Amino acid sequence: MNRVKAKNSTATIKRVSSQAELVQALTIRILVFVREQGVPAEIELDTDDQRAIHFLAIKLAKAVGTARVVMRRGDAKIGRMAVLKSYRRKGIGAALLKRAILSAKRLHARRIYLHAQVAVIGFYQRMGFRAVGRVFDEAGIAHRKMILRGE
Ligand SMILES: CC(C)(COP(=O)(O)OP(=O)(O)OC[C@H]1O[C@@H](n2cnc3c(N)ncnc32)[C@H](O)[C@@H]1OP(=O)(O)O)[C@@H](O)C(=O)NCCC(=O)NCCS
Predict the structure, then answer these.
(1) 55, 77, 89, best to mutate for ligand 1 pocket (most atoms within 8 Å of CB)
(2) Are 57 and 65 within 8 A, CB to CB?
(3) Strand partners, 55
(4) What is d(CA 117, CA 143) in angstroms, rounded to the nearest whole number?
(5) Please, what CATH class does the domain formed by 12-148 belong to?
(6) Are residues 5 and 94 in contact, defined by beta-carbon separation less than 8 angstroms?
(7) Domain chopping of the chain, boundaries
(8) Residue 89 Cα: closest atom of ligand 1
(9) How high is the pLDDT of residue 150?
(10) Low-confidence residues of the chain, pLDDT below 50?
């Protein structure tokens, strides 16, 4: 199992490898995107979930964050990055994103990209992504495409 430590914390990142862990990941997304941000559940959970690689951030045996990687025509799309509200700004999102990037590289992704909510573009910029193109609406939230530099 490949684990990446989050800075200043006991959180570890693990790849989802069971149905029970997938349920934990989807539960975090329901809490963050559906309950907190108002995204409709039928948009939040999609068919890509069946083929994606999912990750969980675990802190003191509790699942507190998630992300997924989906391959699309040779490119890797990172998405559904979510950390429970009271665990944010502790390096957990950064650790999840690093693990997702590593996974995409291992899959020989040509490009690594994501659709960033405009409010968190700064988070992804710190992690090496650059915004491209116009702002667009996705699930009622303003987004921008971002691509990992040097890819
Ligand atoms: C976006 C999100 C995953 C970030 O997770 P996090 O655990 O809080 O992020 P980290 O603590 O690892 O932050 C890493 C760096 O990004 C910065 N950062 C975090 N959130 C940021 C934000 N909203 N805007 C700008 N910078 C931000 C941190 O300050 C930190 O910088 P540093 O390394 O210089 O200290 C989290 O805020 C979240 O789940 N938000 C709600 C869901 C969401 O919007 N997901 C993104 C969908 S595109």
Answers:
(1) 89
(2) yes
(3) 15, 67
(4) 4
(5) alpha beta
(6) no
(7) 12-148
(8) 11
(9) 79
(10) 1
| Interval 30-58: pLDDT, tens | 999 999 999 999 999 999 999 999 999 99
Report the alpha-carbon distance of residue 59 to residue 7 in Å, rounded.
12
Q: CA–CA separation, 54 vs 76, rounded Å? A: 13
Among candidate residues 120, 16, 139, the one with its CA nearest the CA of residue 28? 16
- β partners of residue 71: 76
What does the block give as tokens for 18?
């069971």
Ligand 1: lining residues by beta carbon, under 6 Å: 32, 81-83, 88-94, 116-117, 119-120, 122-123, 126
Does this model's pTM top 0.90? My answer is: yes
Q: Which numbered atom of ligand 1 lies nearest the CA of 6?
A: 12
Q: How many CB atoms lie within 10 A of CB 60?
A: 8
